[in-house]
Amino acid sequence: MTSTGPRTWTRALSRRRRALYLSSPIGLGHAMRDAAIADELRAIHPDLEIDWLAQHPVTDVLEARGERIHPLSAELASESAHFTAEAAGHDLNAFQAIRRMDEILVANFMVFHDAIEDGEYDLVIGDEAWDVDHFLHENPELKRTAFAWMTDFVGWLPMPAGGEREAFLTADYNAEMIEHVERFPRIRDRAIFVGNPDDIVPDAFGPGLPAIRDWTERHYAFSGYVTGFDPAPLLARREELRAELGYRPDERIVIVAVGGSGVGESLLRRVIEAYPDAARRVPGLRMIVVAGPRIDPASLGAAPGVEVRAFVPALYRHLVACDLAVVQGGLTTTMELAAAGRPFLYVPLENHFEQQRHVRHRLERYGAGRCLRFDESPPEVIAAAIAEEIDRPVRTLPVETDGAARAAALIAALV
After folding, report:
1. N or C end of the chain: smaller count of CB under 10 Å?
2. Are residues 327 and 365 in the same domain?
3. Is residue 394 in a domain?
4. 3-class SS at 11?
5. Does one domain contain both 340 and 408?
6. What is the mean pLDDT of each run of 10 residues along the chain (415 residues)?
C-alpha cells in the first residue's frame, strides 16, 4: 500500500474513468465476488480504473490479486475486530452488534467522504457498505457520484432470544430504511440483490410493513448469485486438482473453515475434538482446519492427525477437492460448496439473524448442506454427522456461474 498522502496520490493518477469500490470486511466472501465483478466491469469498460477502500482481511485478498488499495484504507476503523469482540463462544447477535458500532460507522463514513472529496470519482460501488448507504440517505446533499448498492440479504430480523424488544427494534430499523429509499430514490442509482427472488425470506419487515420479497422485487435488480469462480473446469479435473493440493486417492478429505472475521474459534475447537471419533468411523480420514487470518493456529491445540493452517488463498479449490466440509453458516463458503456439489455440515452462529434466517432459507431452497445447532452438537454428534454425510449423494440445485457478469452489466451503465 502506498504511503503517499491522498491528495498527492490522486494527482498522480490519470483522468480516465474511475470507480471507488467498497467491499464489506465482514468475512472474505465479499472480496471474492467483488473482485470477480470488478474484472467483468473492466471487460466492459477497459479504461475504467478501480480503487478499493477496504479493510483487513479483505485487503489481503485484493492485494494478492494486484488490485489497487486506496491509501485512506489505513484510516478505516476495524469492523471485523468489533464483531469478534461482540461474540461469545459460538454466539453473535449480529443485529445488536451492528447497533453498537455507530462510532465505527460514522468514522468510516468520514474516511469515505474524504476519499470522494479528493478522488474525483465517477462511480461508487458499495457491497454492503452500510455506513455509506445510511449516511448518504441521511445527508443526500453529500452525494457526489453515481452510487451502485449491493447486498445478499434485505431486512433486519429478530431472533427469539431478543423477545419483543428486539422485534420492535428490527421493525423500526426496517421502517427507517424503507423511508430512506422511498424518500430519496436518487441515492441508489442501482440496487442489486446478489441472488434471485426465491432466495428472499418469506417474512415481513415488521407489523404493518411490506413483505420483504415484494418490496425487494420493486426496488432491486437481481444478478443471481456471484461465487467469484467457475466450478465447472475444476470439477472436470477434480482428481488432478486433488493431486495438485497434495491429497492422496485413498484419503477422505474434510475441510473445516469459519471464514475470515475471527468469529468461530469455538466451532473449530469442537470439530477438532470430534476428529478421533470421526476417524474411527471413516477410514482414511484427513482433517484440515483453516483458522483464517484472525485466529492463531497454534492456539487451537489440534489433536494428532489434524492439520491446522492459517489463511489459505483460493480456498474454493480445496472446497471443490474435498470429500466433505464443516463450516460456519456464512453465505459465501456454503454457496461455494453448493456450487461445487460437495456435501457439508454448517453450524450457524447462535442469534445471528443473517446466518440463522437469511442464509439458511437460501440453502434450504438449493437443497444444500445439513444444518446443525451448536448447542445440540457435542463432538460425538459432529463425528457421527461427518460419517453420515461424507458419502451421501448431493442433489443441490445448480448455482449460476454468470452472476458477476450480470452484476457488472447492471453497474456498467452508470459509468
Report:
1. N
2. yes
3. no
4. helix
5. no
6. 40 70 83 94 97 90 92 94 90 95 96 89 96 97 96 97 97 98 98 98 98 98 94 96 96 91 86 97 96 82 88 90 96 95 97 97 98 98 98 95 97 95
| 100 and 194 fall within a common domain | yes
Sign of CA dihedral 51, 25, 28, 295: positive
What one-letter code names the amino acid at 368? Answer: A
- 180 and 306 in a common domain: no
| Extended beta strands in 206-349, E state | 221-222, 252-257, 285-290, 306-309, 324-328, 344-347
Q: 175 lies in which domain range?
A: 6-227+402-412
Residue 327's closest CA among 312, 337, 318? 337
Q: Distance (Å, rounded) from C-alpha 199 to C-alpha 225?
A: 10
CA angle 146, 147, 151 (to 5 degrees): 160
Q: Which DSSP state fits 296? A: -
User: Residues near 171 by Cβ (< 8 Å), separated by ≥ 6?
Assistant: 205, 206, 207, 209
Domain CATH for 313: 3.40.50.2000
pTM (2 decimals)? Answer: 0.93
- Between CA 386 and CA 131 the distance in angstroms is 40
The C-alpha angle 174, 192, 84, rounded to 5 degrees, equals 60
Looking at the 3D structure of the chain, how many domains does it have? 2
Q: Identify whether residues 190 and 246 lie together within a single domain.
A: no
Q: What is the pLDDT of residue 260?
A: 66
How many CB atoms lie under 10 A from the CB of residue 43? 12
